[in-house]
Amino acid sequence: MNRRTFIRRTGVSTAGLSMLSFTGFPAVYKNSLISVVPEDNGKALINPDMGWTMHYYSNIITNYGSRLEPSDTLDDFPGLSTVYLRVPWSFIETEEGKFNWELLDTPAQRWISKGKRVAFRVSAEESWMRYATPKWVKDAGAEGIDLNGNKDGTWEPKFDDPIFLEKVENFVKAMAERYDDKSYVDFVDVGHFGMWGEGHTVMSGIEYPFEVKKWHIDVYLKYFKNTLLCISDDFAGHDKPGDHFPISDYAFSKGVTLRDDSIMVQPAPRNWYHSEMAQQFWPTLPVILEHEHYGNAIKRGSWDKDLFLKSVEDYHASYMSIHWWPRILLNENKDVIDKINLRMGYRLQLVEASWPEEVKAGEAFEFKTEWKNAGVAPCYKGGFLCLTIKDGKEGIVAVLVNDEFDFNELETGEPGKSKSKTIASMFTIAPVFKDANREFSRTIQTGDFQVFVSIGSRDGTPIYELPYENNDGNKRYKIGNITLNK
């Protein structure tokens, strides 16, 4: 038993308790209960729909994965779940219909092979290069403008040009055929609109109407039918205050989530712009944050560790970027990164568990647990409580699932103030089946067994890491023992 887990045995009187029925069998109460109060180990968790996203490419393909060895997937960065690949369109579709997918697939497979995940953005305009949209699109007749009035600067496509839109749709279709509905893809940005794919056109000053922005969202929705999509908050205006805008409301109505790339780009009090907008999204969709390039923020005087943590709280963020050379960011900010890992996304905590010290095969018993979500966001995909009984050789003796409570219903709260939920589960090991005057039950050994708890699918497959030791290697956590008698 983990030394961080407190165990107590309590005598329980059965006086006044009525006999309950569970699948036709009477409940059995023992006079002695084991009660366990586990202690959170404080470690970062790698779970679905949350984590740190590592900018392997940050538009420029030499930032920031270029210093990493091919074998280096930053396993020492606590909570890193996802490699983020953001590149200009022209680097992928070098000629019309000819694709350089290797640029994405090579780093992606490094992370996938370690059980991590991938996210993408492909942009159509960059401030540091002329043709983020491939030049062949312009040569095909798409209209655009030369920023700064010269042919040495960025060429900005007209984001409503019919030829441009046709070529964008062809690309998005090809990208979706390759990456949609892949379990390792966390999210894809709607990236073909605006500077850096952020949904704003502040450098040209051209204002595009709602219908143009809607088209860009819709074309991704048309082909990415099974992947979480997101738009930048700047689709609504890069610095416009407010909580609801027509384009963000539309995105939300289509299940497209929100990302904000403005965290600490400017010093306080303009440290970010749209935490109010995020309040519509986070209860049902994971919100994604990106902080300013760390080195730039240090030079500008906009970096603040307290604000870094506060951004996660204000946005109820599930993802945060690693937007610099990753180990520099980690080494200089380990203290606040550890704090963020205790709050970002969700954190399912077992407050207490109790069960009888001894049970009989074929008779129901109560397994009572209390749970909290210590994070800022829901467990979006949800899951169910599973009690697994194992023998001394790690063989699975019984898998018992309570599918009446979905863990996506656990409420969030301020630090240390989330509400708990008690789950009273009635389980039976090796139930007896009756047919006329005959009884049947599977053969099961008796003696002392190990008790494991997990959260996962209805069939008992664990999905989520929990903040405890004694993991069996499959996200089941040993919390004690039980004696099984006949």
Task: Give the structure's gist in a few sentences.
21% of the residues lie in helices and 31% in strands.
How is this structure best described in words?
The structure is a single chain. The protein has 486 residues and is of the alpha/beta class. The chain has two domains: 6-43 and 351-485, Immunoglobulins (Immunoglobulin-like); 51-341, TIM Barrel. The protein is built from ten helices and 27 strands. It has helices at 89-92, 102-112, 135-139, 162-179, 210-223, 246-253, 275-281, 294-300, 305-315, 326-341; strands at 6-11, 21-22, 25-26, 32-37, 51-58, 60-64, 80-88, 93-95, 98-99, 117-123, 144-146, 155-157, 185-189, 229-232, 257-263, 287-291, 317-322, 348-356, 358-360, 364-373, 384-390, 396-402, 421-428, 433-435, 438-440, 447-456, 477-485. The strands form seven sheets. It has an eight-stranded parallel β-barrel with strand order 5-7-10-13-14-15-16-17, surrounded by five helices. It has a five-stranded antiparallel sheet with strand order 1-4-18-20-23, with no helix packed on it. A hairpin with a 2-residue loop joins strand 24 and strand 25 (438-440). Helix 4 packs parallel to helix 5 (210-223) and helix 5 (210-223) runs parallel beside helix 6. The protein is elongated and about 90 Å long. Mean pLDDT is 92; it is low at 1-6 and 10-30.
Radius of gyration: 26 Å
Q: Taking all residues together, what is the mean pLDDT?
A: 92
Instruction: Label the CATH architecture of the largest domain.
Output: Alpha-Beta Barrel
Task: Summarize the biggest pleated sheet.
Answer: 8 strands, parallel, barrel
Instruction: Just give the CATH class of the largest domain.
Output: Alpha Beta
Distance between the termini: 26 Å
| Beta-strand residue fraction | 25-35%
How many DSSP H or I helices? 10
How many DSSP-defined strands? 27
Helix/sheet category: alpha/beta
Integer count of domains: 2
Quaternary arrangement of the chains shown? single chain
CATH third-tier fold name of the largest domain: TIM Barrel
